[in-house]
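Input/output pair, single chain:
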Amino acid sequence: MASRLVKSLIKSSGLGSTGTRNFCLVRSQISNHTAKWMQDTSKKSPMELINEVPPIKVEGRIVACEGDSNPALGHPIEFICLDLPEPAICKYCGLRYVQDHHH
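Output:
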C-alpha cells in the first residue's frame, strides 16, 4: 500500500527516473515576488521596522528572548548575554537588549 502511494507521488511530482525536478517555475515566481516587494519604496522593510523599536532595558546580565509574549507568535528561546556596552541583538527577531545599570 505505502509503496504504491510513494510511486504515485513520485510519478505525479515529475521526479521520474532522473531523480531531479525542474524548479524554473518556482524560481521565476519567487524572483517576481521579491522584485515586486523590493520596488515598493512606500513600505518599510522588516529590518527598518525592527530598528525603530528602542533597545529593551533589563536589569540582569542574561535575557531570554522569545520574540513575543504569545508562544505561537514567537521563536525558539534565545539566552542573550548583556556584558558588552552596546545593545545585544536577538538572532531570530532582531530585538535589541541592553543592561540597565541602577548605580
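The first strand starts at residue 56 and ends at 58. The CA atoms of residues 13 and 78 lie 38 Å apart.
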